[in-house]
Write a structure and sequence with these properties.
Blueprint lengths: L1 H12 L9 H9 L5 H15 L22 H15 L4 H8 L3 H11 L2
Length: 116
């Protein structure tokens, strides 16, 4: 239940598409030992939402949730975070820049880099 709650929460918070948690992934999460308890689960799910490819499914070879294997492309992740912030703030550049911790000029440079 907590994993599903965190998936919905972080998908909404970060402007990402909703991720469905299939039963195999839920069993893998439940079977795993969480040394940090709820905090560790929360951080892992947020990381999966931010760095995942949109699907949370089990990899048959490893029996680990595939979305936990992050997409380590900095450019793709930066572009998706900028796009989500712009959409969340109705393309108000000042507010999106403030949320991302950037100046307006820095956000404009990144928008030009990614063709946004």
């Amino acid at each position: 239940m907590l994993a599903r709650h965190f998936l919905a929460l972080f998908a909404y918070r970060h402007g990402r598409p909703s991720i469905a948690l299939d039963e195999d992934a839920a069993r893998a999460i439940a079977a795993d030992r969480w040394p940090d308890n709820v905090r560790g689960l929360r951080q892992t799910i947020e990381r999966a939402v931010l760095l995942g490819n949109g699907d949370l499914m089990l990899s048959p070879a490893t029996a680990e949730p595939a979305a936990f294997a992050p997409d380590l492309s900095l450019a793709r992740n930066e572009e998706s975070l900028i796009t989500a912030a712009l959409e969340r703030h109705a393309f108000n550049v000042s507010r999106a820049a403030a949320q991302l911790g950037l100046t307006r000029a820095a956000l404009y440079r990144r928008m030009a880099r990614y063709g946004l």
